[in-house]
Amino acid sequence: MSQGEAAGHGTAKPQDQGWAWMVLLAAVVLQGLTLGFPCCIGIFFTDLQHEFQASNSETSWFPSIMVAVLHGGGPLCSILVKRFGCRFVVMLGGLLSGLGMVSSSFCKSISQLYLTAGLITGLGSCFSFQAGVTVLGYYFVRWRTLANAVASTGVSLGFTLWPLLSQYLLDEMGWRNTFLIFGGILLNCCVCGAIMRPIQLASGSLLQSAKTEEEPGSRAEEAQLSNGASPHHPALQQHTKRTKCFQMLQKYLAFDIFCQNKGYQIYTIGVTWMMMGFALPHVYLVPYAIHNGVEERKAALLISIIGFINIFIRPLTGLLSGHRVFTGRRIYLFSLAVLLCGLSNFICVISAEFSVLILYCVILSIAMSGVGALTFQVLMDVVEMDRFSSALGLFTILESTTLLIGPPLTGLLVDITSDFRYVFYTSSFFLISAALFMGLSFCALEKKNKLREASKAHLDNPSRYQYSEMSTEPKAVSQSPPAVEYITSI
Predict the structure, then answer these.
(1) Which residue spans traverse the membrane (predicted)?
(2) 255-454 belongs to which homologous superfamily?
(3) What digits encode the pLDDT tens for the residues 185-209?
(4) Which CATH class is domain 17-198?
(5) Half-sphere exposure of 332 (CA within 13 A, CB side)
(6) Which DSSP string corresponds to 247-290?
(7) 17-198 and 255-454 have identical folds
C-alpha cells in the first residue's frame, strides 16, 4: 500500500522488529475476532427461529447483513483511516462490535437484530479488520508478506474456536446471555487497537504524510484561483464539489477500470456471481445437520473442522500459488478451487449422516482454502498495482451485494419446499457456473491477446515472423505482482 511503503522509506525502525511483532500478534487476534465471528451465527439459527417465530428467509437476513457489511464497508473504512489513522479506526470498530452484540441480547424482534448484530456489529468488524490489516503495512516492510500470511491464520483460528465456544455458552446460558458475553469478547478489539500505536517518521507522523498525498487533488482549484476566480464564486464552488466527488469515486470505486480492463471485468462479475452461493453452507450447514437428527454439539463441531483444516491448508495454498510456474495462471487455480467447492456440496445431498458431513467439511475446507488464499492474489494479477486499492473498493462492494441477498433468497426457497437440500443445490449451481465462466472466459481472453500480439508482430516484422513464434500472455496477468500487502477476507 502506498502509505505503508511511504512509511517504509521514512525510517527502518521500529519496523520489522521489536514492537512490530506485538502488532502482528494483535492483528492475528483481530482477524480471529472479526472475520472468524460470523461463522458461528448458524449455531443460533434454530433458537432464533423459535424465539421470534421467524421463517428461514427472515432469520438468514441477520447473518447476511453482517457478512455483507463486513465486506462492503471497506471504502468507508479507508476514508476514516486516512482521516483519523489506523489505531483510532480499530478501536472504533471494537466499540461498535461490542455495542452491537450487547444490544442484540435485548432485542425483541428479528428485525431489531438486523440493525444491532447485522449492521452495527458488521460495520464495527469491518473497521477493525480492514484497519488492522492496513497497519501491518506501516510496521512491516521486509517481512510484510510473512506478516500478512501469519495474520491470516487468525481467521482459521476464529473458525475453529468460535463455534465450540458458541455451542458451550448456548447450552449453558441461552442465546441472549451468549450474545452479551460476545459483546464483551469483541471489545477486546479495542485492546488490539491500543497496541497499534502510530509510527513516527523523520518528517512527521503517518497522518501528516497521508494528508500531503491529498494536496495534488486540489491543483485544479488552485489553478483557477490563480487565474483570478473568486473562491466564493457559486459556479467555482459547485465545480469544486463535483471534482472532489468524482475524485473520491475514482479513488475508491474504479468504474473506469471495470469498463476498460476485460480481465478485471470478467473476474469481478465471476466472483460477484460466485458469492451468491459461497456463503450458503456457512449459514445453513448446522441447521441442516440438526434438522436431519445430528446432535447440536456435533453439528457445531462441523464448522470447527472447516476452520481447523484451514489453518494448515491456506498457507500451503498461498505458497504453492506463489511459485513462478503459476505466474499469470492463478486464475485457473482459483476457478478450480471454486469448482471443487461447488461439486463438494453434492456430498451433503447424498446423505446427512455425521460421518458423511465430516467428509464434506474436509473437502469443502480444502477448496475454501484455495478460494481464500487466491481471491486477492488474482485481483493483483489482473489490475495494475497503482490502481489496486480503488479496484478493491468496487470489487468488495459488488461481492457484498450478492453476499447480502444470497442466503435470504435461498431461505425463501427452503420455506417453500421444506427441503434443506435445495440450499446445497443452489450453492452448487452458482459456484460451478461461476468457475466455468471465469475459467473459460480467461482462456478465451488469453487466446485473443496472443492472436493480437502475434498479428502485431507479423505486421511489424513480416520477414522474420515465419521463422519464430511469439508466445505471450495477457499483459494484465503475465506480470508477477510485487510483494505487497493484500487482504484475504474470505
Answers:
(1) 21-45, 61-81, 88-106, 112-139, 146-165, 177-196, 266-287, 299-319, 331-351, 357-379, 391-410, 422-445
(2) MFS general substrate transporter like domains (1.20.1250.20)
(3) 999 999 999 998 887 654 444 433 3
(4) mainly alpha
(5) 12
(6) HHHHHHS-HHHHHH-HHHHHHHHHHHHHHHHHTHHHHHHHHHHH
(7) yes
